[in-house]
Amino acid sequence: MQKGNLLYEGKAKKVYETDDPALLIVEYKDDATAFNGQKKGTICGKGVINNQMSNRLMQRLARADVPTHFVQELSERETLVKRVEIVPLEVIVRNIAAGSFSKRYGIPEGTSFDAPTVEFSYKNDALGDPLINTTHVLAMRLATAEEIETIERYALRVNALLRDFWADCGVKLVDFKLEFGRLPDGTIILADEISPDTCRLWDSATGEKLDKDRFRRDLGGVEDAYAEIMRRLREHDD
Ligand code: UDP
To answer: Three-class SS of residue 180?
Structure first.
């Protein structure tokens, strides 16, 4: 599959057209940003890890009947995916309080929930991706009621599957962000990526952070954390 025109360049990925209008090529970069682009840096080798991790996790989800955009890994950093129209929502699932949840509600980081939470942010960099509720989503016609229902159902299924998988790897799945897209026939599928950039992953025994919080919070050992989480995944996924 040949890379065509650059369609879009985001903070961590480039997206190219291909000679098939239904397929795109995603290329993962080592660039890292945080706090809505205010903090910038490079995490050496991140693009390779995020590409490979996201592809393995999406294939695992597809085997459990969660439809995804994954088609084929083309190289260390490049993957062929189905072209979708992205639903402009960040779908965040949480098992343990952390990050913006802890800040917003004054709940200490590390507090476990009895049941997972699902929340939406409106994907809009200029507005800083504000929290949004489902009546707002409907009012702004960002998604239909049926699409919201499907997205929530898939998000919780992804959580159950990934929480179990990461537990086997000795890792707690604290929270994560998903994005969904629409195929031309309107089918909702999982898109974007699932990686240490988009998940909080804590070592089950020590609580050590093995995700992008090491970069966001200047904790050091960023590359080592990405390598360690990928090593755990490989060990349990092969
Ligand atoms: N997240 C993400 N992209 C965003 C915002 C959040 O991938 O633009 C992920 C983040 O890595 C974490 C989860 O979503 O795993 C919840 O993030 P939170 O709302 O706590 O925001 P943060 O503290 O990262 O600003």
So the answer is: strand
Examine the pLDDT at 238 and tell me if it is beyond 80.
no
pTM for this model (two decimals): 0.97
CA distance 65 to 45: 31
Q: Atom of ligand 1 at shortest distance to CA of 92?
A: 14
pLDDT in tens, 161-192: 999 999 999 999 999 999 999 999 999 999 99
Rg of the chain (C-alpha set): 17
Q: State both tokens at 87.
A: 């639903």
> In sequence order, which ranges of 22-144 are alpha helices (DSSP H)?
46-63, 99-105, 134-139
Ligand 1 pocket mutation, candidates 198, 213, 214, criterion most atoms within 8 A of CB: 198
Q: For tokens 């080798």, name the residue.
A: 45
Domains defined for the chain, CATH in brackets: 3-82 (3.30.200.20), 85-221 (3.30.470.20)
User: What is the amino acid identity at position 99?
Assistant: G
Best of 118, 175, 215 for a ligand 1 pocket test (most atoms within 8 Å of beta carbon): 175
Extract the runs of DSSP E, i.e. beta strands, from the chain: 6-9, 13-17, 23-28, 31-34, 39-42, 70-73, 78-82, 85-86, 89-96, 112-122, 131-132, 171-182, 188-191, 199-203
Token pair of 206, please? 């020590």
Name all residues whose Cβ lies below 6 A of ligand 1: 90, 92, 98-101, 129, 175-177, 198-200, 212
User: How do residues 114-127 score in pLDDT, each as one tens digit?
Assistant: 999 999 999 999 99
